[in-house]
Amino acid sequence: MAAKIIPEKEADAERYVVLLAEDEFFIRFDIAEEFRRLGWRVIEAGNAEQAIDVLRSTARIDLVVTDVRMPGDRSGLDVARAVREERPGVKIVVMSGHLVPMEKHKHLIDLFVPKPTPSDQLAKQIKEFMHASG
Predict the structure, then answer these.
(1) pTM of the prediction?
(2) Who is most buried in 45, 69, 131, 134, counting CB within 10 A?
């Protein structure tokens, strides 16, 4: 049986582009590698300001995965607010070992993942979420 040839345009549509905002380098590296194993493209940001700059660019983004606590004046919730303002159709996954989502945050969060969660389990959970919502 011959392999099905998928036009590049269609193949690219099958790959998600993820903006990953996480200040801890090794955690960000592990999560990014798991997403890449899924065939997804990853744009990495080390803080909320960098993530918001990417959101304001013309880069394609299908999903934002952000930690809540990051250095600087802005948090992952600020990233989520920027997504809602700049890219309303983009899905938002929020990770935190400190925050428990409250009613006032529900409109900012499509999926909450408590930390610590092993990066392979996180990627699997997010993949299932994207397929269910997509």
Answers:
(1) 0.87
(2) 45
